[in-house]
């Protein structure tokens, strides 16, 4: 009994996922075809795919540019003006720094993958580094947002205790703990 519908032609191929170096393809009837190719056969499909890739790369570069400019401006303002170094603004600074590092570290890798037609050509070590930094910066951003919401809650509901709960040194320990925790996971 076949798991594949009979209306699919057996010449359609799909990439076998697993090892990034695996070049075998499997046809719809489940047999391996080492000589199969997953590239489009018509020029209309190639032109459409090229337009999509150019659009994706352009969008990614615009997003990276806006992210770098906006978050760098926030970081620069908090660093350059001592009056802005409050507990709340340090949390905003940490969030901007996480987003800035995501754009600077992971953005170019994403562009390279888009240019290479969504194929990973950078090896297993770079894959692990990219996965680690993406996860670390993403989770640090989420945890920072959680601490910002706790800080806002404390400032509204318990204004007398909020200063003790969120002192500058406790906040810096929380922020350091976000990054330190991820380096051992």
From TrEMBL:
GO molecular function, one term: G protein-coupled receptor activity
Protein name, entry field: Neuropeptide FF receptor 1-like
InterPro entries: GPCR_Rhodpsn, GPCR_Rhodpsn_7TM
UniProt family annotation: Belongs to the G-protein coupled receptor 1 family.
TM helices/strands, residue ranges: 57-79, 91-115, 135-154
Signal peptide start and end residues: none
Main location: membrane
Domain annotation G-protein coupled receptors family 1 profile: ranges: 70-185
Topology with respect to the bilayer: Multi-pass membrane protein
